[in-house]
């Protein structure tokens, strides 16, 4: 049952920015996928092709990527009469059509939209739920639901407050089921809202880009204290842990190799910028004082030395996102250098499933 048609269009994502949506047709029907996009992205990620016409959508239009699907990728796939269950072959074929290291010719967003639509069609053709089909493609026989990490305080590029660190998350590690974990997370979230109101007033519970609260605080430790209090108020001390996404590449000053925790202030005091060693000490103090089990992007995406140093000093989950960008070459490098012990998997960083 070959793929008979591929069509793309421009739609809007949850941030109100244009993105690519792809419809793929087979005898089984039509299968649709939309491409996700991040607010903070690593420099090593595959290139998201934008139109760069500042007069339209602030340059973020994706009509070029849409045209690449409709005029190049789609016709080529239909001509080859690929079956949608040929996921690896189709992905490899599209990467060959692009021919660049960072997917800059056709655009990661063009390639990924088709790749995700192919996966949905492939699952339907095999009569399987999408999650089981993806597990089969990955060679995973036993599927286990993860502990959800709920982003409940937003900072960094996700919020208009003074917080430098991007995400403060709660992880219900003591839950006996996913259902219970969601209930625990929800209850902590609402206790957090009440605590923010109590400390900062009714106008402090606005939310950021990803739905977490964005109180206008600057001290990252204050954010952790809010979470710890909310967890205790919910009665889940010892059952709910904390995770953080620092997104430190967003406030790294490459010219002096320092980190500016007041980067949203154009007049931030350079004397307060922190070295990699000082950032490590800050993280270790957090880990000592709070139930932190996971820290993501603790250092800039090419600050390998400081990643390695921190790995030797803690056994919590150190997650590479901007560091590894779901790229096999970067992941191999991180393993060889022992820079992190976990990675974030994001298809939009690498352009295909």
UniProtKB/TrEMBL annotation:
Pathway: Carbohydrate degradation; glycolysis; pyruvate from D-glyceraldehyde 3-phosphate: step 4/5. The keyword Amino-acid biosynthesis does not apply. One of its GO terms (biological process) is glycolytic process. It comes from the Eukaryota. Its EC number is 4.2.1.11. Its cofactor is Mg(2+). Keywords: Glycolysis, Lyase, Magnesium. Belongs to the enolase family. This is Enolase. It comes from Toxocara canis (Canine roundworm).
